[in-house]
Amino acid sequence: FWGGLQGVITQAVLNRIKLKPAERRDFFDLAARRLAAALKA
Question: Is the whole model's pTM more than 0.85, yes or no?
Answer without folding.
Answer: no
